[in-house]
Amino acid sequence: MAGKVLLIEDEPHIVEAISFLLERAGWQVFTHSNGQDAAEVAGRIAPDVIILDNMLPNKSGIDVLREIRADATTSGKPVLMLTAKGQARDKAAAEEAGVSMFMTKPFSNQAIIDTVKMLAQ
Amino acid sequence: MQSFNLLVSICLLYVAALFVIAYVAERGVQEGRLNFLRSPVIYTLSLSVYCTAWTFYGAVGSAARSGLEFVAIYLGPTLVFVGWWWFLRKLVRIGRTQRITSIADLLSSRYGKSNTLAVVVTLLAVIGTTPYIALQLQSLTLSFFVFTGGSGEGTSTPFASVTAFWVAAGLAVFTIVFGTRSLDANERHHGVVTAIAVEAVVKLIALLSVGIFVVWGVASGPADIFERMDQDLLQSSQIFNGRWVTLMFLSAAAIICLPRMFQVVVVENSNERHLATASWAFPLYLFLMSLFVLPIAIAGQSELPADANPDLFVMTVPLAKGQGTLATLAFLGGFSSATSMVIVAAIALSTMMSNHIVLPIWLQLNKKRSPASDDVRTLLLRTRRISIGVVLALGYFYFQITGGSDALASIGLIAFLGVAQVLPALLGGVFWHSATRPAAIMGICTGFFFWAYTLFLPSFDGAFILSQSVIENGPFGISALRPQSLWGNSFEDPLVHAVFWSISFNTLVFVVASLLTNPNSMERQQSAQFINVYGRISPSSTIARNAEAEELLILAQRILGRQEAMNLFNQTAVSQGKVSGLPDPTQPFVEELERKFAGSVGAATSHAMLAQITGGESVSVEDMIAVADETAQIMEYSERLKTQSEELKKTAQQLRAANSQLLKLGEQKDTFLSQVSHELRTPMTSIRSFSGILRDSDSLPPEKLKHFSSVIHTESIRLTRLLDDILDLSFMENGKVQLNIAPVNLSEVINRAATATETQLQERSSELLRNPASEQIKVATDSDRLAQVVINLVANANKYCDAEPPQISVSCRRNGGTVEIDVADNGSGVDESEVELIFQKFSKLSGGFFVGSAGLGLPISREIMRNLGGTLTYEPGGAGALFRVTLPLEHTEPASA
After folding, report:
1. Do A12 and B688 touch (CB under 8 A)?
2. CB pair distance less than 8 Å for A13 and B692
3. Of B114, B179, B502, B592, which one's alpha carbon is 20 to 30 angstroms from that of B519?
4. Do A17 and B715 touch (CB under 8 A)?
């Protein structure tokens, strides 16, 4: 049933919260906290769903997304991007880069569980 | 018999009335009222100055002595007005276009503006007119004398002399008052002309009344009168003989050449069309004046004693019949005739004398000074007045010297011939291109010499220059040179003899000299202006008009712009009925152009430009001065415009700069809000998630429960601190922060910072190194804010130092009037490219070791230092990161942001 989720996020408390929620729902959660080698990690782990923060240290979420799409092993993976509101320009760039879904912070716990489940199918 | 006093009173009353009429007319015309005074009737009546006292009284005398001879004196002018009025019209046109002021001016102007010629003509006019004025004075005194009971013979008595003197003085005053009121460019005197017209009416009524009285009062009708006529009086041999033709010629010449006639015919003419009326009305006037001459002469001869002076029949016949009132009227008629002649002659002569003799001499004497126009005006008016006095004085003295002699009686015709000497030069000037100035001067002088030699000097009967023996036997006994029969030719009549020789020699010399000399350029130009004064339309002048229109178009395009000029010219051409081509430069069109140009280049410039193209007028000094004034005004105006436009440009630049500043600020605000939003959402996300977990989960292990609750707690604090920082920064950026300035020891500040960061430092096992001796510096500042900065710097060092264990050193030193606090660590420092970045809001460097930083610490610290009058800088080049706080020992107000 539930598969692997890679969570790329730099805020420790948010990582903790999402990990707790998804693990309780039966997912295997991998975390990574900076953009530098995120795409590489994604290729190694081969998750069913990638959750990607838009603002990461060293490298923006968009750039990480482009790398994920460029890599054959991860190019088809669904990517859920976490954004803050009011970043329309980023959103358009992300859509162009091939994002699967957006979720605006702060989100409801149920929504993120449902979205990951939906994206995994 | 009338008493002398009554007669004087009547004269004074009459003159007073003339004064009033002249004054009212002058004012009325100036103010634009009484426009009927410019009518052809007034003009025609003013021409009656031709009929002087000599004609008024003398015509009857002449008729009594020589029958119809007097008619010739009236026929000459009549022929000119009826047959030669087109010549008069040409003179009038020339007079107006050339602004001619006298006959001397006309001749001088025609012959290349020669002043020599003007002086010659002026002298001739003075010599010819002075005896004539004397004649008027004689007539007046004679009539006074007769009227008050004298015999009419003793005019050389002291009584006559005194009368003549006062008459002359009175006339001088009248002439000065109304002849020199102003210096009009046209030299028109409406007041004088009107007074003269009134006098014309008075003398006509007087003569007609006497005539009617004679025919129907003395005799019983025309038939009765002519029955009384002496059979010898009218003989056909008297008419159409040599003398008759000569008289007609002289009187015809006089109507043009006499200074006073030229004055009224040409100078005082205000409208050419008046000549059309005058061409029949003036002959009619002369006809009426001559109508009763013969009846009065016949009545005088038949009713009065044989020794009665026929020259006074006009008065003596009514007096003999006891008609005192009628005689008074006749007296007033004679008075009018004499005064009008003297007044106009004095005006004409004074104009000539002041313009052509006094003014040139004055200008010559004042060559070095440039005369102001006011000086010249005053001078001219003064010389006119003095000249009038001189002219009348000359007349008076002439009368005194020759008083009572028969010479004076014949002086009228002698004077006619004298001024007639200008006739060849005048006719030649108006009709003959080849006439030249030397020829004119020589002709006039020749004629003048022959006139003086053959007629004028002999008239003194040996009393003046020519002795009786010379007159009878010729100079040195050479009979061929006898003044009154040159070359042995024996004309019966010395007048005919003089007219023949003087006019013949004059004309001959004039024609021959003209053919032998060449006109100079000025003469050529002037002769063309005179002879072609009507600008007759010939093929060549059509070309000239087209060229003129082209030049106007070029000028208009420059001033009005291409399109507008073309539109204007096309419209005008259409309105002139032209299918194609340029419009004719008609007067209304040129005036319209002048108005339009004036809007662009000013009135004076516009006038000067157009005058140059449309010809005739050259640009005068006054025009040039007006142009210069205008130009100066325009320059000043454009200078103001330039300054204004520069100011506008500067303001626009400032506005643009301010606008782009605002745009940048707007962008910065958007970015800031978006960053704030993001920074707020991060702790809120954690709080929402964990609180949701706590709410939804019934069976959480207690340690999880505690952990999640503490995360919520931490994030809430972070959120609060973030909001505080944002507000703090905003306040400080706007300079609204409240500072509590007080003296404080730096060690106190650093102690507080150490205490506040103690927990953080312990978490990383960091070491805080201090130099307590260096911290003993007292400064005046806000110690809380300064401590906040130091805490921030220490916390940052603790957070970002990449050495294990971190060592953070705080040291102070005094540097001149400032104090420096260095906060350094033993890490690898800040990359040079990131130094500016770290002072920006919400910039977080990678590799932070603690959560909860929003990236506002350094921007806030820098703002605090700015508010404290100091700085916060990053000092590169050290081993680790080194931040330096600099602040003054005494607090000073910060520079505004």
Report:
1. no
2. no
3. B502
4. no
| Cα–Cα nearest to A61, from A74, A52, A70, A69 | A52
C-alpha closest to that of A29 among A38, A40, A16, A39: A16
Mark yes or no for CB contact A84/B677 under 8 Å. yes
B767/chain A closest Cα distance in angstroms: 26
The model's pLDDT over B586-604, given as tens digits with 9 standing for 90+, comes to 777 877 887 777 766 666 6
Question: Any idea how long chain B is?
Answer: 897
Please name each of the domains of chain B with its CATH number.
Answer: 4-404 (1.10.4160), 422-536 (no CATH), 541-619 (no CATH), 627-728 (1.10.287.130), 738-888 (3.30.565.10)
Q: What is the CATH number of the domain that holds A39?
A: 3.40.50.2300
pLDDT in tens, B828-881: 888 877 777 777 777 655 444 344 456 778 888 888 898 888 999 988 877 788
- Strand partners for A4: A28
Please state, in angstroms and rounded to a whole number, the distance separating the CA atoms of residues A14 and A112: 12
Summarize the confidence of residues B270-277 as an average pLDDT. Answer: 84
Query: Is B151 in contact with B137 (CB distance < 8 Å)?
Result: no
Measure the N-to-C terminal CA separation of chain B; round to a whole number of Å: 118
CB contact under 8 A, A107 and B688: yes
Quote the pLDDT of residue B226: 76
Q: ipTM score here?
A: 0.93
Q: Is A70 in the B-facing interface, judged by CB distances under 8 Å?
A: no
Closest-CA residue of A relative to B696 is: A109
Query: What is the predicted pLDDT for the residue at B185?
Result: 43
Contact list in A for residue B673 (CB cut-off 8 A) is: 86
Q: For chain B, say whether A86 makes contact (Cβ under 8 Å).
A: yes
B743 CA: distance to closest CA in chain A (Å): 43
Are B693 and A87 a contacting pair at CB < 8 A? Answer: no
Tokens of B648: 């506008």
